[in-house]
Amino acid sequence: MGCFECCIKCLGGVPYASLVATILCFSGVALFCGCGHVALTGTVSILEQHFSTNTSDHALLSEVIQLMQYVIYGIASFFFLYGIILLAEGFYTTSAVKELHGEFKTTACGRCISGMFVFLTYVLGVAWLGVFGFSAVPVFMFYNIWSSCEVIKSLQTNMTASGDQICVDIRQYGIIPWNAIPGRACGPVLENICNTNEFYMSYHLFIVACAGAGATVIALLIYMMATTYNYAVLKFKSREDCCTKF
User: Fold this and answer.
1) Which residue of 25, 158, 162, 179 is most buried, as measured by CB atoms within 10 A?
2) Residue 186 placed within a domain
C-alpha cells in the first residue's frame, strides 16, 4: 500500500459529522459561557446604579447571578470533556463500522457504551433546548428597554411630544421586588441608561450568548444523528446472521 492509499484509508476513518459537531459545540459553549458571564456582571451593575439603590432589594438576585456564573464554569468544563469523549467515540465507531483495521469485531460492552452516549446526548439536547429558551429572556428584556429608548429619541427628533411618559419598570419582570426603589426609569433617565457602556455591552453579549446556545443545540443534534447511526450499524453488524457490508 502506497502513501496515497494509506492517507485515503486514514481519512476514511475520520468521523466528519462528529468533528463538525465538536467544533460547533466548543464554539457555542465558549460564546454562551464567556459572553453570558460578562453580561450577567453588567446586568447587576445596571440594576444597582439605576433600578435598585437599596442593596437588600436585589441581594437575592445578586446571589442567584453569582451562582449562575459558577454554573457556567461547570458547564464549560463538562462540555469540553464531553466533546472530546464523543469525538473519540466517533473515531472508534467509524473505524469499526468501516472495518478499517481488519475484521469487524465488537463487544456487548462497546455497544452498551455507545448506547449510553446516545441516551446521554439526547438528554443533553433536550436540556439545551431549555437553556436556549432561557437565554432568550434577557435578550427580550434588553430589547424592550432599547426599543423604549428609540421611541424617546424619535420623539425628540420629530419634536412631536415629550418622552417623559415613556417608562420601563424592571419590577414587572420579577427580578427585583415591587418595593424596590426606584424600580423604573422614565424619559431622559431611561435614555441615559441606554447610552451607558454597561447597557450596550450587556445587550449585545446576551445576543451572542443566545446565539452560542443555539449553536450548541445544533451541535448536539448532529451528535444525536451520528451516535444513533453508529450505534444502529454496530448493533446490526454484530448479529451472526448479518452478511450485508455497509
Assistant:
1) 25
2) yes
Cβ atoms of residues 183 and 51 within 8 Å: yes
142-to-98, 138, 148 alpha-carbon distances in Å: 51, 6, 10
Residues 215 and 104: their CA atoms lie apart, in Å, by 35
Residues linked to residue 167 through DSSP beta bridges, in sequence order: 186
How far, in Å, CA of 241 to CA of 67, rounded? 54
Residue 101 falls inside a structural domain: no
C-alpha cell at position 153: 429619541
Residue 169 lies in a domain: yes
For all residues of the chain together, what is the average pLDDT? 80
| The overall pTM is greater than 0.85 | no
Taking only Cα atoms into account, the Rg of the chain, rounded to an integer number of angstroms, comes to 25
The position carrying cell 414587572 is 172
Cell of residue 238, nine digits: 454484530
Q: DSSP letter for 49, please.
A: I
Kind plus residue range of the DSSP H or E element containing 69: helix 59-98
Please name every residue paired with 182 in a beta bridge, in sequence order, or none if there are none.
52
Number of folded domains in the chain? 1
Question: Does any domain span residue 7?
Answer: no
- How do residues 42-62 score in pLDDT, each as one tens digit? 888 888 888 887 877 777 888
Range of the domain at 144: 19-87+110-244
Using CA atoms, how far apart are residues 110 and 234, in angstroms rounded to an integer? Answer: 9
| Distance, CA of 95 to CA of 12 (rounded, Å) | 8
Backbone phi and psi for residue 162, each to the nearest 5 degrees, phi listed first? -85, 145
The enclosing H or E element of 186 equals strand 184-186
